[in-house]
Amino acid sequence: MFSKACEYGIRASMYIALQSLEGKRVSLKEIAEEIDSPVAFTAKILQQLSRNKIVDSVKGSAGGFQIEKEQIKKIKLSEIVYAIDGDNVYVGCGLGLKKCNANKPCPVHDKFVAIRDNLKNMLESASLQEMTEGLEVGTTYLKR
């Protein structure tokens, strides 16, 4: 449903949020290692997240990536998904057909529209803080 880049973007955001809650900035290399993603690919993802004001990039010897604590409460998963994948998850055909629409539906069109609407509602209501509550580095969601 989500691209690999989007999955990594969500995981990177969660990791950065966890570290930010402890007052830490994290490096590109640390994030890439933690989410088990190539460094160059992670850099592109973080650039998109930074451009969309989801993460803050601080340059210099004490630099790294962080998210302001107040922002962690406000950022919705839909913002992360949109920053990486755009709105494709909300408009595509469930079977991947190019000409599927309400006028020429595929066999699963109506059922998939309902699923897609539920997904959109979930992503728009779930905050980054909710996603990180109870998580620690070393859990199923993060590599270590």
UniProtKB/TrEMBL annotation:
PROSITE patterns: HTH_RRF2_2
Protein name: Rrf2 family transcriptional regulator
Membrane-spanning intervals of the chain: none
SUPFAM superfamilies linked: Winged helix' DNA-binding domain (SSF46785)
NCBIfam families named in the record: rrf2_super
InterPro entries, sorted: Tscrpt_reg_Rrf2, WH-like_DNA-bd_sf, WH_DNA-bd_sf
Domain of life of the organism encoding this protein: Bacteria
